[in-house]
Amino acid sequence: MQVDFGGGEEVLFERRARAGVITLNRPAALNALTHSMVKAMGRALAAWQAEEEVRVVLIRGEGRAFCAGGDILAVYEAGRAGRPPVAFFADEYRLNAAIARFPKPYVSLIDGVVMGGGVGVSAHGSHRVMTGKALFAMPEVGIGFFPDVGASHLLSRLAGHYGMYLALTGERIGQGEALGAGLATHAVDSQDLADLTGEIAESGDPDAALKARHRPVPRDRDAATLAAIERHFRHPTLEACIDSLSRAAATGDVFAGETLRTIASRSPTSLHVAFRALRQGAVLSMEACMRMEYRIVNRMLANPDFYEGIRAALIDRTKAPAWQPASLDAVQAAAIDAYFAPLPEGELAL
């Protein structure tokens, strides 16, 4: 039975047996989130939390992606027109927090790309199911932004400082690596998703169905690489992490050299902000992280690097952004402090 919570055709809602099913339905845009989609999903969760008949919520994406993130071009155009869409981020962060505290099983069926805002509507739920087509990334530092949608809470809690590595590089990982890191809770075959959805909807309990269909998938990175990630990204300052990588690269360490080159292509300001957000987020609740990220995004939408990064990546496609400042050591500590300062107009209400 279709249910209307708003959002038009961009996001569909269905009551199916004991489940509420959300389908992100912008396949041509890789299911990128719009403000209306975010608000509609928030209404659906509130309604389904109160309905005793709904035992579980499932979320899926139509087409070849789960969700590639927020509609970043719409954000870019609004900001360039002098109307930074702060309200979009406020509602998106409220939705992320609502998913994290949702009292019923929330099952994300990730069969394709999951990045940025897609991570925010999937990774904070109780069950994160990935197929072999899954591709996870938080690539924001490459466009002059920062890993948001609760990444300061999520990534900071991954073992071996793996989340810091993902945040500072924007590296893409697949099903096995996500499972090994703890970003996914289950790995299933893509062709099983339709049957799995039906089984969970009928029972209202995802655990038995997932136990039967889950299969072990090895990590892509070997033990030596994981140890190197922990060694280089465990340090209390960004400068110390870079120094550790630099010293290893000087000895011919291929992983360190490649990682350094990747980081060097990212926005220096974004790198500093991301590093601090994850360090602080490691000791904060999810809701405190969302308030911190809301402080950051209010300032980030006024940061020239964001508009330069989008221009280079998506508008002109030069892939050669001119960051301001252009180097890590040119970024002033006071400038980074300002991103984290309390908002004069008030904090995010959750």
UniProtKB/TrEMBL annotation:
Keywords noted in UniProt: Hydrolase
The protein's Enzyme Commission number: 3.1.2.4
Q: Which domain of life is it from?
A: Bacteria
Q: Cross-referenced Pfam families, in alphabetical order?
A: ECH_2 (PF16113)
Hydrolase keyword on record: yes
Reactions catalysed according to its record = 3-hydroxy-2-methylpropanoyl-CoA + H2O = 3-hydroxy-2-methylpropanoate + CoA + H(+)
Residue span(s) of domain Enoyl-CoA hydratase/isomerase: 20-340
**Which NCBIfam families does UniProt cross-reference here?**
PRK05617.1 (NF004127)
- Output this protein's name: 3-hydroxyisobutyryl-CoA hydrolase
Q: Which organism is it from?
A: Chelativorans intermedius
